[in-house]
Structures are given as C-alpha cells and as structure tokens.
C-alpha cells in the first residue's frame, strides 16, 4: 500500500496541473467575425494570446511559414505551415468557398496562395517544406531551405541554378499525396 501512495499523489498532481494549464491559457484556434474575409495580423494577436494551428495543434510561432483560411461565415483559422492549411482545407465540405492566404516575406503580408510561388525544401515547423514567396525571383533566390541547411551554404549556392519553384496547385497535389519532406524517400529526392 505504501508503494501505491507516491504514484497516486504524482498522478493526481499531474492531472491537476494539466487541467489548470488548460483553464488558464489563452489559446486562439480561430477568430470569428471576419466578414470582410481579409487576413488578420498574427503579430497583433500574438501580443495577447497564443495562436494554435487548426490542423496540427502546434503554436504558430513564426509568421514566415504561416497561413490563414477563412470560411464563409467569417471564421478565420490559423496554420503554422502551408502544408497544414492545405490538408485542413481538403478535409472541409465547403472547400471551394474557403478563402486562403499565405504569408510572404517580401512584403511581410498575407497574399492569395494562387498569386504566390513556392519552394518544397523550405524550413517549416511541421516539415512539409512548402514556403511561399511573392515573386518567382524571391523563390529562386531563397536560402531559407533545408538544402542550404543540410548541404552547407556554399554547396547550396552551386546547386541554386537547378532549383525548382512551384505554383499553388502543384504544391497542393504534392502535399495531399504525401510527397513532402516528411516522407524520407521524397526528402532525399527533393534535396538532391
């Protein structure tokens, strides 16, 4: 019986701390009332609350890889990775009516995903590798990638002339088929 008491106390304390953290944290999974369907400024919201990705449940820490989706009722959902947004939108019944935005570093703003250019070897929170850029030249010259990280900057610069960029429809198909940096064989092919 004496061996059981410490485990009981620790379990009870753990459960208490878990529920206390849930009750006191101010997490935002979505924001209602965006009837204009414009992207919301993540940095302003993050000053007061923690923004949580609607697909994977991770905190949206870096706006450079973030995305937003707005459903017809005006509810805005946040994502820490473009790949998370693609997966989430694909699971919705009214996916054709959802307005999407991706963050691009050139203007530090959100734009329509169909107007952006993408790389598939970017450094992203989940690891899909999909990063948006406002211009094709920015996407071609980007060095915020796994290729630059894994091969070293000098070797990456030598291979830069062979870099491929993609449109939204292409990266959406790659993500939905699982052809991202999360798949070990695909990662090897993408980073070659």
> Which strand order does the major sheet show?
2-5-4-6-7
Q: pLDDT under 50 segments (min length 5)?
A: none
Helix-strand category: alpha+beta
Give Rg in angstroms. Answer: 20 Å
Number of folding domains? Answer: 1
Largest sheet: 5 strands, antiparallel
The helix/strand order is: HEEHEEEHEEEEHHHHH
* End-to-end Cα distance: 60 Å
What's the average pLDDT? 84
Beta-strand portion reads 15-25%
Number of helices: 8
Helix proportion: 25-40%
Total beta strands: 9
Question: What is the fold's blueprint, element by element?
Answer:
Elements: H1 4-24, E1 27-28, E2 30-31, H2 42-46, E3 50-51, E4 67-70, E5 76-79, H3 82-90, E6 99-104, E7 109-111, E8 117-119, E9 131-133, H4 136-141, H5 146-151, H6 153-159, H7 168-177, H8 184-191
Parallel strand pairs: 1-3
Antiparallel strand pairs: 2-5, 4-5, 4-6, 6-7, 8-9
């Amino acid at each position: 019986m004496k061996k059981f008491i410490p485990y009981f106390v620790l379990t009870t304390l753990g459960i208490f701390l878990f529920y206390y953290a849930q009750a006191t944290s101010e997490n935002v999974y979505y924001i209602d009332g965006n009837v204009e369907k414009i992207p919301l400024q993540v940095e302003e919201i993050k000053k007061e609350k923690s923004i949580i990705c609607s697909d994977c449940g991770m905190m949206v820490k870096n706006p450079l890889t973030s995305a937003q989706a707005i459903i017809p009722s005006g509810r805005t959902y946040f994502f820490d990775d473009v790949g998370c947004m693609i997966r989430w939108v694909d699971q919705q019944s009214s996916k054709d009516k959802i307005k999407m935005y991706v963050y691009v570093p050139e203007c530090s703003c959100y734009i329509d995903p169909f107007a952006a250019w993408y790389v598939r070897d970017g450094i992203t929170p989940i690891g899909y590798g999909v990063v948006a850029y406002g211009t094709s030249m920015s996407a071609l010259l980007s060095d915020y990638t796994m290729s630059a990280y894994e091969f070293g900057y000098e070797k990456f610069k030598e291979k830069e002339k062979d870099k491929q960029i993609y449109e939204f429809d292409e990266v959406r198909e790659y993500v939905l088929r699982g052809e991202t940096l999360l798949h070990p064989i695909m990662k090897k092919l993408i980073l070659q």
